Amino acid sequence: MSHSYGSRAKTMTTNRGPIATTPIGRRTLFQRTGFGLGAFALSQLLQEDLGAAPARTHALAPREPHHPAKAKSIIYLHMVGAPSHLDLFDFKPELQRRSGEDCPQELFESSKFAFVRDLPKLLGTVKDPAYRFTPSGESGLPISNLLPELQTVADEITLIKSLHTDEFNHGPAQMFMLSGFGRFGRPSIGSWLNYGLGSENQDLPGFVVLITGNVLGAGSPAWGSGFLPSVYQGVEFRSKGDPVLFLSNPDGVESTSRKRIIDAVNSMNQVQLASVGDPEIATRIAQYELAYRMQTSVPELMDISAEPAHVHEMYGTQPGQTSFANNCLLARRLVERGVRFVQLFDQGWDAHGSVFTNVAKKAGQVDRPVAALIKDLRQRGLLDSTLVVWSSEFGRTPFGQGANSEGKETKVGRDHHKDAFTVWVAGGGTKGGFSYGETDELGYTIAENPVHVHDFNATLLDLMGINHERLTFRFQGRQYRLTDVEGRVVKGIKR
What we know:
This protein is α/β, with parallel strands linked by helices. Helices cover 31% and strands 14% of the residues. The strands form five sheets. Strands 1, 4, 5, 6, 7, 8, 11, 12 and 15 form a nine-stranded mixed sheet that branches.
């Protein structure tokens, strides 16, 4: 059966009025309880009340993929700011040898850069044993010593060293990587998957977002639904405080009162459904109930304190705190419960100065929990069905930005580089212990097996059982898809 989905057919408006069972009116309750769900449940329904077009029937019901899937869920780790892949995953001996020389004029003039304007100097990895690359695992996959824990799971990882993108500034590049378009307005990849496959757990959203640090430059549109119904956008969960903003009952409203309000509203919607037969009303009823059920399911999910001590030791987690480690453990707990797409954003990788200091610091923060996540998934028999993705918006230049300060090599930075960078995947039907694509001897351009962002996204969808050319949505007179009118599946990384 084809999963080429069409748009919503008509607009429906319902009457709004106070509920007699409580002194807090229906509209007030929705305003106070819904917005923190990221327009996922209650706020989505309020938007529809205000005249938005309805979505299709049973919006989050699970649906069959186009073809047998390698993976059932994705944990997507986005390193915000763009790590220096040359110092972590793509070691270049020739760049080391020529470090300090002028960048070849023809290379420098062939690309756009964010800040560098004058001919820069080539910049190799700092000559310190901590920054050396070590052949890791039985496969001998070269990974920086800055990531010693990741080296222990090298045989689960496929490095893709030949990714390239169209954008060279953070916000547009983040949107392009995650939505296939450099500006706001398009659905994110998590929203597309939520739309195409639905949710396996009707007590939780199909797409959950976890953030450490500040929100990335692109902001919440990076996990938004664009022109898809907002029910498909990501819902931000927090590891400290209220797990989801405004999910708790407002002051003066008990759980029983809230349930009476929902029941009363649903009774009116049932009457409307019987009268007009619009299937979206059934979806609306289900969404009210989901928001209510999340009050129980989400707090239990977010409480990691019951995890065994050895699990906390493996991840480096601290219950009740906000950390990337906590978010990695939460990601495992989410996919364990059937959440389709979990996206982690980790801020702080931008390094226009002191790139070596920064990459060492950030690598130290994420190395242990990322390796633990892979090991944990494998031990629980979940790695084969869970695709782990490490990504960023672009790469870093093989030349320096700025001059050394006081003769200190560590003070120099690297500019944005869109023409060649490294991402990696693990589990979910990928080979493991494998490297795909190559850059030239300086790490400047792609020398073998280029992978465009559209190709990468097409491949992620394919591993989830989705044909990227068939997952479409009609908007403003044309069919849209995540990969626009491009994209090919990178078959070389699949088992």
